[in-house]
Amino acid sequence: MKERSILVVEDEHDIAELIALHLRDEGYQVTVAPDGHAGMRQAFARSWDLVILDLRLPGPDGLSICKSLRAEKNYVPILMLTSKSSELDRVLGLELGADDYVTKPFSVSELVARVRSLFRRIDAVSREHEPQPVSLSVGDISIDSASREVRVGQTRVELTAREFDLLLHFATHPGRVFSRAQLLDSIWGFGHEGYEHTVNSHINRLRGKIEPDSEHPQYIVTVWGVGYKMETPAQRRNT
Prior knowledge:
Layout: E1 5-9, H1 13-25, E2 29-33, H2 36-45, E3 50-54, H3 62-70, E4 78-83, H4 87-96, E5 100-104, H5 108-129, E6 135-138, E7 141-144, E8 149-152, E9 155-157, H6 161-171, H7 180-188, H8 196-210, E10 220-223, E11 227-230, H9 233-237
Helix pairs in contact: 1-5, 2-3, 3-4, 6-7, 6-8, 7-8
């Protein structure tokens, strides 16, 4: 198994070196970027298995780096480092696509445990999806889980990793209603309790890409007071 590569973007030298020391002890290959400019350059210089990203940085801040990474086709897990007082930044970071966060001050053992947990989830998802690639259609929407490609009619639609996971989750359970909490647990996983509005934001963006009219969605339908479901053309005809 190849050595995991981790980029740590942290401007506080002592914290960065402490994180790097403990992650290297775990067998990870660690590179440290001391500010937002170096972090942005390093993040796009090669592929990483994980980016640990402080949100308060000189130069481009962590939210800017997170947003830039999520605009790319290739997906990289992101773990944010935030301060206790920056709940808004945590919310924005999660909505931009960060996978988890740790609040400063933190114990290094907690951070290492979060990194291990994140890699376990990624490995579990990979094992779950690799043996059973799925190609399916819902109305005009075609989904290929092996290539993670989505088309509406003949037009290819570019989705973020979270948007694709949400769409595939709905499409493999047509007609089933999911609460926001259930979607958080299934798609985002541990550590995102209390951020149900993140689901709303991702669904609104997803609707904007796949619905003929996002103001009157046909596929991802709101079930008021409960959550959301995927409605097929056949189900619409029977209602």
